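Weekly structure sync, notes
Attendees: PL (lead), two postdocs, one rotation student
Agenda item 3: pending single-chain targets
PL asked that the sequence for the first pending target be pasted directly into the notes so everyone works from the same version. It is reproduced below exactly as submitted, 119 residues in total.
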Amino acid sequence: VQLVEFGGGLVQAGGSLRLSCAASGFTVDDYAISWFRQAPGKEREFVASIHWSGKSTYYADSVNGRFTISNNAKNTIYLQMNSLKPEDAALYYCAADPILTRTPNYHYWGQGTQVTVSS
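Predicted structure, written out during the meeting:
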């Protein structure tokens, strides 16, 4: 089982980034795939989630309307991040679990990709 994130980087406030998460080694159809983030000194927090089978999506209040989670037919999950704010800066993780939850109790995790937002 493997989740590999990429697409992080440095962006100015107000800018956009698209993160990608490539999933392999398990049947994604039965899984929820979520993005979490963790800033230095803070707890890991839920960002967005998509359930593969139903395409249901969920967002944290702090990103709703600015971020969009989506997937493609090739086991890749995207997080389009628009209107980025300095407080969005964090290490972003992709995670997978059969149960969709906003708590970080996920079975599988990627290694993370860094997002830095300059003011």
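Discussion points:
- The longest strand covers residues 17-24.
- The chain has no helices and eleven strands.
Action: rotation student to compare against the earlier draft before next sync.
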